[in-house]
Design goal:
This protein is about 20% helix and about 25% strand. The protein is an alpha+beta fold and about 160 residues long. It has one domain.
């Protein structure tokens, strides 16, 4: 019996160790140009492929609003679900934005991504933020770093920037 228990413990230890350093994936489709996949393991490649660059984007980086942690400048791109939304009310499931974050000399230092997964408030949003190679947020709703806490002050459905 002790041998079986040790074998099971060893198998569990090896299984947990082999996954610990792998980037997170939610198993989303990674080739849809309108929907960023969730999880560092998938979203970084999607961003590198430049899918969001075909969205409606601000023409150049802009100074961030007072109090924003995304300093000093950002450039936001909205997918079609946001770009074609009516001016009021809750955004539709599938609404997504990508925010390029710039350093003091104008280089991209990171990305922020939001994607609406379901209706009904903060818990329906997926948040991702990676700055200088470090993941700051990668998850759903309020527990995903401080994203929901800040974005709840947006005038409309957790989204600050609507690119005209």
């Amino acid at each position: 019996m002790a041998t079986v228990t040790r074998t099971i413990q060893l198998a569990l230890l090896l299984a947990s160790g082999s996954c610990a350093d792998e980037p997170r994936s939610f198993g989303d489709i990674t080739t849809d140009p309108e929907l960023p996949p969730r999880g560092e393991g998938d979203i970084d490649g999607w961003i590198d492929d430049g899918h969001y660059l075909a969205w409606r984007c601000e023409p150049q980086p802009v100074d961030v609003r007072f109090g924003s942690p995304h300093r000093p400048q950002t450039r936001t791109c909205n997918n079609a679900a946001i770009a074609s939304a009516t001016p009021t009310g809750e955004l539709s499931v599938g609404a997504a934005s990508v925010k390029e974050m710039y350093d003091e000399v104008g280089r991209i230092k990171g990305f922020g991504v939001s994607r609406k997964m379901e209706t009904g408030g903060a818990d329906g949003w997926y948040w991702y933020e990676k700055i200088n190679g470090g993941v700051k947020a990668d998850g759903m709703g309020a527990p995903a770093g401080s994203c929901s806490g800040c974005h709840m002050d947006a005038t409309r459905d957790f989204t600050y920037v609507y690119v005209p």
